[in-house]
Amino acid sequence: DSGVTQTPKHLITATGQRVTLRCSPRSGDLSVYWYQQSLDQGLQFLIQYYNGEERAKGNILERFSAQQFPDLHSELNLSSLELGDSALYFCASSSRGEFTDTQYFGPGTRLTVL
Amino acid sequence: KNEVEQSPQNLTAQEGEFITINCSYSVGISALHWLQQHPGGGIVSLFMLSSGKKKHGRLIATINIQEKHSSLHITASHPRDSAVYICAVANMDSNYQLIWGAGTKLIIKP
């Protein structure tokens, strides 16, 4: 158990809908990262937050947005969903938000868009 | 050409064999990570390297900064080592974002 929690575990929805994925980092970690992993694909970095502020942005679509709240949990919002958005979404956390940190991964949320 | 290349893409071996997975990169880095993704999807960080060699149990990771190459070795492999092994580098030129390799799928047969 990494100490990172993600909810929900599974999510099935329809095209055009909007969903919110939630992540709670390990106790004491200030930084949260979001990744997308499509079927049989590698991890794609989406976005990173550190202590409530956006720190780095990767290949995140404009239809996607995220935020980190004062209690350090983070939410990833996906809107106008398309079939191609079906994927595993991972959240990770680290202590300092440096890319030399060890990242601790949550179990992921499996999103299926029908 | 991808900035991070892993080889082989797929590897099947017998229990007990010595396993080597390679990672080559073309950018300047501050660190290299090895991670393991279990068949169920869970991801675990194995090592973070900036130089030399690290060992944890039956796993050994090495990095040669001059040659821009890292290897992950598994000694006395076991079926429970079956997983996807992923290399990721912290890129000096890209706000220290991690660049991910595509992964090596390892299957260890009993």
Architecture blueprint of SSEs:
The complex is a heterodimer of chains A (114) and B (110).
Chain A (H helix, E strand, L loop, with lengths): L4 E3 L2 E4 L5 E6 L6 E7 L6 E7 L2 E5 L6 E5 L5 E5 L8 E8 L9 E2 L3 E5 L1
Parallel strand pairs in A: 2-11
Antiparallel strand pairs in A: 1-3, 3-8, 4-5, 4-9, 5-6, 7-8, 9-10, 9-11
Chain B lengths: L3 E4 L2 E5 L4 E7 L3 E9 L5 E7 L2 E5 L2 E6 L4 E6 L8 E9 L6 E3 L3 E6 L1
Parallel strand pairs in B: 2-11
Antiparallel strand pairs in B: 1-3, 3-8, 4-5, 4-9, 6-7, 7-8, 9-10, 9-11
How many DSSP-defined strands of chain B?
Answer: 11
Helix content of chain B: under 10%
Overall morphology of chain A: globular
Report the C-alpha radius of gyration of chain B, rounded.
13 Å
Runs of chain B in which pLDDT lies below 50 for 5 or more consecutive residues are none
What average pLDDT do the residues of chain B reach? 93
Query: What is the arithmetic mean of pLDDT of chain A?
Result: 94
Termini gap of chain A: 31 Å
Q: What is the chain-wise order of helices and strands of chain A?
A: EEEEEEEEEEE
Biggest chain pair interface:
A-B, 22 and 22 residues
Count of helical regions of chain B: 0
- Describe the main β-sheet of chain A briefly: 7 strands, mixed
* H-E string of chain B: EEEEEEEEEEE
